[in-house]
Write a structure and sequence with these properties.
Layout (H helix, E strand, L loop, with lengths): L2 H10 L2 H6 L3 H42 L5 H8 L9 H17 L3 H24 L2 H33 L4 H56 L7
């Protein structure tokens, strides 16, 4: 085989050559998948920082809360403190504020239920903030492979139409356009696999934090219950 012909064939199968000479439909799909991949990695790094911050905030607050002291003193230290008034700290502040408000209004019987509702609302807000952008990862993980497959099907369909028009097919003429079409599937998987992995990881961490918040709510509710007049002997 002519060395120059071999070099030309190798260049025709290079990734850059295949992408630059792909049909406009395949190129548009590759650009779309590239945007999805960049967006996916942005969300991944952003959520990794968010969950790391939430985990550290939970440890700091629990250390302060269970170290002892009056509830009023703990509340003064937590409220307005950006490092403590988040996650479980925000739930604590919401419950304590509502409990004190109800007691000042002589609604002791309803204070515990009101505090519990306030904590539930704070929990929903905190979990909602942690969930931000996770649906985007889920969408990329589920849609990207099919978008890539669409590009592959389109490329292969175009290849066979061209072969039919030329009425001849050789490996040298079929391999480049088929490889070009398969790049779209590769790009779809490249975008989807990290999104799927980190989405599942973040959901697991979210469930763990939510469980911690739920346990704290139950424990803090028991503490408040002991402070209601009905609980005193």
């Amino acid at each position: 085989m002519d060395p120059q012909h071999s070099i030309a064939a190798a260049e025709s199968l290079s990734l850059t050559h295949l992408v630059l000479h792909a049909s406009w439909v395949v190129q548009a799909i590759l650009v779309l998948l590239l945007i999805a991949s960049v967006a996916s990695w942005y969300v991944i790094f952003q959520k990794a920082l968010v969950f790391a911050h939430a985990q550290r905030a939970l440890k700091r607050f629990e250390k302060r809360f269970w170290s002892g002291g009056e509830m009023a003193q703990i509340y003064q230290q937590v409220t307005g403190n950006a490092q403590l008034e988040t996650g479980a700290g925000a739930i604590f502040c919401a419950g304590y504020e509502e409990f004190q408000r109800q007691r000042k209004q002589a609604r002791g019987a309803d204070a515990l239920d009101a505090a519990r509702r306030a904590m539930r609302g704070a929990q929903i807000r905190e979990v909602g903030q942690l969930e931000g952008n996770l649906p985007l990862l889920a969408s990329i993980s589920s849609v990207a492979p099919f978008v890539g497959l669409l590009g592959t099907v389109w490329g292969i369909m175009t290849t066979f139409m061209n072969i039919g028009a030329a009425q001849q097919a050789t490996l040298a003429t079929v391999a480049p356009p088929v490889a070009e079409a398969l790049i779209a599937t590769l790009a779809g998987l490249f975008a989807a696999i990290p999104a799927t992995f980190f989405y599942n990881r973040f959901v697991h961490r979210l469930d763990e934090l939510d469980s911690h918040y739920e346990v704290f709510m139950d424990e803090f509710t028991n503490i408040l219950h002991r402070q209601t007049p009905e609980a005193k002997p």
